[in-house]
TrEMBL record, chain A:
GO molecular function, one term: transmembrane transporter activity
Biological processes annotated in GO: amino acid transport
Name of the featured protein: Branched-chain amino acid ABC transporter permease
Similarity comment: Belongs to the binding-protein-dependent transport system permease family. LivHM subfamily.
One matching Pfam family: BPD_transp_2
Major localisation: membrane
Membrane topology listed for this record: Multi-pass membrane protein
InterPro entries the record matches: ABC_transp_permease (IPR001851), BCAA_transport_permease (IPR052157)
UniProtKB/TrEMBL annotation, chain B:
CDD domains reported in the protein's UniProt record: TM_PBP1_LivM_like (cd06581)
Cellular component terms per the entry's GO annotation: plasma membrane
Membrane topology qualifier: Multi-pass membrane protein
Gene Ontology MF terms: branched-chain amino acid transmembrane transporter activity
UniProt-recorded name of the protein: Branched-chain amino acid ABC transporter permease
Lineage: Bacteria, Bacillati, Actinomycetota, Actinomycetes, Micromonosporales
Keyword tags: Cell membrane, Membrane, Transmembrane, Transmembrane helix
InterPro entries for this protein: ABC_transp_permease, LivM-like
Residues spanning the membrane: 7-25, 37-59, 80-100, 106-128, 162-185, 206-229, 244-270, 282-306
TrEMBL record, chain C:
Domain Leucine-binding protein, residue spans: 37-378
Signal peptide location: 1-23
Keyword Zinc: no
The UniProt record lists the keyword Signal: yes
InterPro entries: BCAA_transport, Leu-bd, Peripla_BP_I
Entry keywords, A to Z: Signal
Protein's name in the database: ABC transporter substrate-binding protein
Family stated for the protein in its record: Belongs to the leucine-binding protein family.
Amino acid sequence: MDAYLIPAVDGVGYGLLLFVVAAGLTLAFGVGDVLNLAHGTLFAFGAYAAAKVSDGTWLSLALAVLVGTAAAAAGGAVLSALLVPLAGRGHLAQALLTFGVALVVGDLLVGLFGPDELPVKVPALLDRPVDIAGHSYPGYRLAFIGVAALIAVVLYVVVARTRVGSLVRATVDDRDMVATLGVNPFMVRTGVLAAGGALAGLAGALGAPIIGPGPRTADLVLMLSLVVVVLGGLGSIGGAFVAAIAVGEIQTIGVTSEVTQDFAPFLLFGAMAVVLSARARGLLTSRRSAA
Amino acid sequence: MSILRRLTPLGFPALIVVLLPMAWVLDDYATKTLTSILVLGLLAASVALLTGVAGLPTLGQTAPYLVGAYTAATLVRHDVSIGVVQLLAAAAAGALFSLVTAPLVVYARGVVVLMITLALGELTMTVAGRWKSVTHGTDGLLAFAAPAPLPGLVTLDTDRATYLYVLTVVAVLVGVMLLVLRSPAGALLRAARDGEARMRASGHPVAGYLTVAYVAAGGLAGAAGSLLVTVERYVSPGAGGFDISALVLLAVVIGGATSLVGALLGAGLVVATRDWIASRDWFGGSMAGHAPLVLGGLFILCVYLLPRGLLGKRTAHE
Amino acid sequence: MQRRSLVSAALAAGLLFAAAGCADSDPKSTSGAAASTLKIGFLGSLTGTYQAVGTDLKSGFELYLATHDNKLGGHPIDLKIADEGDGAPTAVPAATKLIKDDKVVALTGIVGGGSVAAVAPLLAEAKIPLIGSNGRPELKDLSGVWTTSFMSTDTGQSIAQYIKDKVNGPVYAIGPDYQGGYDQVGGFTTEFLKLGGTLVNGKATFTPFPTTTNFLPFFSQIKASNAKAVYTFYAGKAAIDFVKQYAQSDAKDIPLYSAGFLTEGSVLQAQGDAAKNILNVCNYSPDLDNEENRKFVAAWKQKHPDATPTTYAMASYDAAAVLDRAIAAAGENPTPESINAAVGKLGQIPSPRGNWQFGPKTHSPIQKWYLRQVRNDGRALANVMVQDLATVGA
C-alpha cells in the first residue's frame, strides 16, 4: 500500500490541474452555451507564457502567471467577438469556428515557439524533492496542489456565495428566464469566455511544469477537459471537481497495476460516451436541450 | 436558382464521367493522389450522411473506418485476395461496429453528438494501438498483396488499375446511397432531422431511423477503410486519428453537410490544398507542415462565408 | 444568393484541376551525360513528435553536401525534401511523391521504424535503394535497404556486460510500449539475462505509448522493488519527463543507466541538472578523438554555433558519405540499381564515430558503442565519453 501513497497524492495534483482547466470549459458550455474547442489552446497560452517568462525567480513566476492568465482571458474575449457573426446559426457552427481557431492558433504557436516541448524553470526552492511520510515527491507539485486547492475553494465561494455566481448558476438552470432579467447576452458570453479562458491560462501557467507547452498540449488538455466536463455533468462546477479528481487518480494509480493499466484509457473515453448517452436519453424529456 | 442547384440531379453522374478518363490523362503521381482523395471522399460521404442528412454531427466516423481497414488488412495477410470480398467484409465490420455503438449515439442531439462520437473515435484508436495481438499496436499492419477486384480478373498492379477500382466502388456506393436518399427512406430521415417532435408525435420511431442511417454510414466508412488498405497497403491507428476526423469534417462543411457529392468535392478541395501547400517551396519551404494553419483557415472561412457549403441545402435548423 | 453561387462555381470548377495539377512540373532528371545532376530524396519528420530528430537528420545530410561542394560521387545533387510527419499516414504519401513525381534515384533519412516498414515495399517495387539514417524495423527483404544508424537491439546489448559487472543486485528495466521500445530495452534484457543478471519481475516493464507523461507511479514501484539500478530507453518528450521526474522521485538515489537517446540533443537542455550523472550508451559522442570527428564537429559548429552534433546528425552525415562513395563507384550513369549494388561492395567507412562497415546480414553498421556520462562540460551539460564498450553488429 505504501507504494501507492505517492501516486495517490500525485493523482490529486493532476486532478486539481484538470479541475481548474475544466471549470473554465464548464463555464463556457454551461453558461455561455458555447462548446469552445479552442479551450486547450488557451491553456497552451498560459503554458508557453510560463516557459518563456519564468526564469527561476519568484517575480518572474508571478509575472508569467499574470501574462498567461491575461493572454488567455483576452483570447476568450476575442473568441466571443468572433462568434458574433454566427448569431442564430446554432451550436455546430460555433463549435466549428472555435475548432478552426484552435487549428490556426495552434499552428501559429508552433511557428512562434518551435516544435519542441519547452522546459519550464521553477524557483530553486521548489525545484527539489520534498519528504512525504518517508517518500520523495517533487516540491513544485506539492506546492501546486496547495495553490490549486486554494483556487478551487475561491471558485466555489464565488459560484456559491456571490451575486455573479448566482447569475451563473441561474443561467445554467434556465437560460431564458435569466434573459428576461435584462442581462446583455453578448456581455455575459464575453465575460464567461474571458473568465473561462483566464482559468485555462492560469492552469496552464501554474501547471506548465506538469503538463508542459508543446505541439500536443492543446489537444491533450482539450480532450481531458472534455472528459471531465462530461463526466461532471456538463454545467456543474462541483461535478467537474469530483470528476477531475477521479480522472487524475485513474491516470496515476490506474497505470501502476498491470491489470488496470490496459483499461485506463478505455475507462476515460468509455465512461464519457456512456454518461453522455445516458444523459441524452434523460435530456430528451428535460427543458434544457443540448442542441 | 443558382446554376449548381439546377445541375445537382446531373451532378453525380457528371462527376463520374469527368473522373473516369483521368485514369489515362493524369500521370502516376496525380492518379495516386486522386485515388487517395476518393477514399477520403467516401469517408466524408459517410460523415455527410450523418451530419447533414440525419442531423447527427460526427467526429467519430474514423472508428468504423479503422475497423473496416483492419478487417481488410487482416484478410489480405491471410491471403484473401479478392477485392470485393475484402470490401464486403470491411463494410460489414464497420456496420456491425456502428450497430453496437448506435445506442450511445442516436439519442443525443447537436454538439453532444460531436462529443460522444469524438470519444468513440478516440476509444477505437486507442484499442487499435493496444490490442497488439490483432493489430500489431502502433506499428501497424502491412498488407502488401494487391487484390484482384473479382475472381478471375487481374490483380491491381498499376496505379491506374487501382484508381479505376476505387472510382468504381465509390461510384457504386455513393450512387446507391443517393438513390436511397431520394426514396421515402430519405424523406423520413430528413423529416426526423427537421421536425423531430412532430415525427415522434405521429408515431415514427425516430431512434430506429437514425440507427439505420448510423449503421449505413458505418458500412460506408468500413468500405472506405478497405479501399484505404488497397491503396496504401498499410494501416496503423494513426489512420483514424483526430486529424483525419477534422479533415473529413472540414470536407463536409465545405462541400455542404447535406450533400454526399459535396462531401466528395470537399474532400478533393481539402486534400489538394493541403498537399499542394506542403509541396510548394513558398517562403523557402517553410510552409510545408503548416497544413493545420491552412485547414483551420479554410474552416473559419467556410463557417463565415459558406454556411451551407458548396452544395448544401437549407435545413430547418437555419 | 449571387455571391454564394459565384463562390461555389469558382471553387467547384477549379477543384478537379487543382487535384490533377498537384503533379509537379519539374523537368525529368537526366541520367545520361557524366556529372549530371542526381535527385536524392530525403524523408524525415519535419513536423510532429519527432521533428527534432528529423531536423537533425536533415542538417547532417545537408552539412555533408555543403562541405563537399554539393556533390556526391562527382555528381551535383538536387536534394528533394519531404515530410515524414508522425508516421506512415504522412510518410507513405510523401514517399510516393518522391518516388513517382520527383523520380529520385535513392532515398535517405526516415526517423520512425513504422515509416520505414510502410515505405519499404514501395521502394522495393520501384527498385529505389534506401540509405536510412535512423529508423530500422524488422524487414524481410533487405536487398535494397541499408541503415547507417544501428539495429535497435544493439544499444542495450552493448552495455549489458558493463552493467552486470558494476551492479550488485536486480535491475529494473523500463521502456515505452511499442516495437522501438521492445527492441531497445529487449536488446539489454536478453543479453543481461544471458550473462546471468537478474531483472526485477524477471522481465521489463513497458509504459503506455505515447500517452505516458507522468512516470511518478512507476518510480514508486521501482523504489518498492528494491532494484539496485534502472535501465531505460525513452526519446523526445517522454525522455524529458522521465529524467526530470526521476530526479525528484522516490527512485532518485537509484543509479540510472540508459540508451543514449534519453539524453541526446535538445532533450538534454530541457532536462537540465536532473540529467546529471546518467550513464548512457551511444554509438557516438561529440568529443570522440579522431580526424573525421574533428572535421565534422568543426563544420557543424560553424553552421550551428549553439549546438553540438547528435548521433542522429552524424548518422545522416554518414548516409551522405555512403552515397558519395557508392555513386562514385556506380559508373558514369548511376542508376538506382547500380547505386544499390555499389553500396553493397563498400568496405570500411571512415566516420566521426570511428570506422565502421555494413554488416552483411543486417545491412546495418558493425560499430563500437561508447559509454558516456552526463557531466558539466565547460558551461553546459554534455554527454562526455567515459570508455569504450562492445563492438556489435552482424
